Amino acid sequence: MSGKQGKDPDALALIDRASALYSAAPGNAQAPFRYPVLSTVGRDGGPNGRVLVLRTADPVTWQATLHTDSRAEKVAELAANGGAMLVFYDHMASLQLRLKGTIGRNTDKAALAGIWAELPVSNRPNYRASQPTGSVISAAGDGIDPSGTLSGFENFEVLTFSAETADILQLARSGNRRYRLDILSGAGTWLVP
Q1: What would the pLDDT profile of 92-126 be if each residue is shown by its tens digit?
Q2: DSSP notation for 145-165
Q3: Residue 64 — φ and ψ, nearest 5°?
């Protein structure tokens, strides 16, 4: 975590707790922070949110990567407006983390091929749909290429999220606490929860 100097111990403890939950999520399918809600600005100007899988999380820069189908609505939305928010919640820890920032696309073909090679084989059919995600189909399971003629790689997209602010809310019976960290400067401030 950047900018630790000058922060009070309570703020540091809260940031460290959120950072630990965030960084542990990619390697643990049971971690609540593993499945954040990605919020974007829809092409109609309204909000649009959906749950994605957190693939990588850097607790120092608060950057992350997520996978999606390149034909998904979110990709078109992000091309028009790269502003986004990732929202995480851990019920057991009573902690919410909202990361506000921007998302870009990884266009390095060699890097994408390496990420694809590491992707579990069981996940690859998700990218073999004959139509874009969200298309109307006749029955559940229609539209997926069962024969494997498509590899899925042609539709595979890696999104790179760069956070600008981290808004951390700790719920507690003794009193909720909320802290906003400006990731670029390292400055932060307590907020009314």
Answers
A1: 999 999 999 999 999 899 999 999 999 998 888 88
A2: -TT--S-SGGGEEEEEEEEEE
A3: -150, 160
